[in-house]
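Review box. Two proteins, two foldings.
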Amino acid sequence: MSWNNKVAIAWWTVGWIVILSLVCAMLFGCRTTKVVEVEKVRTDTAYVAKVVRDSVVVRDSVFLNVYQKGDTVFWEKSVWHTDIQERWRVDTVYKAKVDSVPVAYPVVKTVPAELNAWQKARMRIGEGAIAMVLIGGGIWYFRHK
């Protein structure tokens, strides 16, 4: 095999590697556009529960006995009923927060048409008439005051 033949084979191999690399890049490099769903309303909720114990002592049926022996007065106090109550209170906080994401929509804006010469003239005449009425009314008001 001659030197020219080896160079040709090397260039042929390099050419095929470049062509395969370009084909792979074209097939796997770019993707089509992907539609990403955006959530429109998001709700965050917080739930907190706190349990509190409260004990209450209730004394009931108090009996007071007063009697006298000689010159001494005796007081006897008898408690007939003692009740211990425990209360459990559950304090619950529920907070919901709704957050909405604005969605873009097209806005249609209407632009009024420009007035022609006749319409502009009528507007100027009307403005002049209103000005004359106001000025005449002011003069009449101050003369007859």
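Next protein.
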Amino acid sequence: MLYCGANRTGRWSGRQYQPQNLPRPSARWEDIDKADPWKPIEDIAVPAVLFNDAATIAAHGGANAVCNDVTRSAIVSELGHQLVSADWANIESRFLAWCTENRWKLDYFRAVDRGEAADSYKALWARFFNMKTDDVTKTMRYAAKRLDLACGYLGSVGALISMSILDNVDMTDWPTLVLPKASPDQLGRAQRAWRKAFINGEDFGVEPAIFKAAHIMVQLYRETNKAVVEEGYHIGNVVADAMQKPNTLFRAAKCDIWYNGHALIIQLPSNRRLFYWSPMMREEREEDLEHGEVKIRQVFWYKASRGKQWRWLKGWPGLWIENICQAGCNDVLRLGMLEVQAYCKAEPRLAAWLATLPDNARTPIALHVHDEPTLEVPTGMLSHETLEWLLTDNLAAKYKWMDGLPLAASGWTGRRFRK
């Protein structure tokens, strides 16, 4: 685990063995083996390969998919120990709603945490089409999840389609799900957007109906989450104002923002700072190939280190809101792991066990994958319910800046790692 591997946000990265990049299972084995839904996948899939159980292999998508599916389960605790893990629920989506004051989503997350509502992705799709959440199918929910991840940081059709292609998402159902329910105005805007993208060679080679469905989904997301869009572009305006007025403090998305003559600085709610060095505003020319119109706009550029070099990179409102959310979630992770470490050092049985370890290894934290710390402890010494509490109610009570941030976590305990 490489601390501050992502130099802008301070998130961890990895070297050599990288648990962050382990492939997700391609099949939900809980759905395949309903009699024992938490049975480790390798106990199902590996014997199927060894004994040529064609039905089970086919259910998992073939031998290659089986190898992919068991990769995470290769992480095993030593005998007499167990893994205890907890995953913050929708942490980036929750942080985004919190820092942009997206009231409907904040209220919905709190209702989910009280057990009074379905998950937020079902709610998002239901809100698009005035449906009941119980009528939202798995396909609809997954489309809403992709949309939330792609468009939360002001992404548009390009972000949605490219992310879906990268994650091998089947987009063929989108036109059937979306186009019949779209208004004439939405259809018209989608048609114009597709025509422009096609002329500019920016349609990603997908069928026109898929592109139009994606565009309508983006329209629906932005209409439903106006607070996110407005605050995102407000940050862009604040950055431009800060560049024109050095050493003047501005505020957006619960952050303080200013330019000190050397760097654009964004101070997060935690008081940690993000730096964008040697920034400047440049004029750029943008031409509409269909109508021949030319627009001149001001674009933010800054320097960032890449390897052993400094390179110029472009900044835009989506980048600011993404960096704020990802860095803020990383602050939650850092403080959460410190709370876990402090609790384990204070709990007598865990403290006695930690004392038997080498000086440089006295921590129960074995790994963490973005928003999921995973501990390895002697069996029975720590429950996942305690870990959930440490990462939510306990954490929020100790740090004033998290006031109003709806934290929730879901944990598990077992010998083999899963996600």
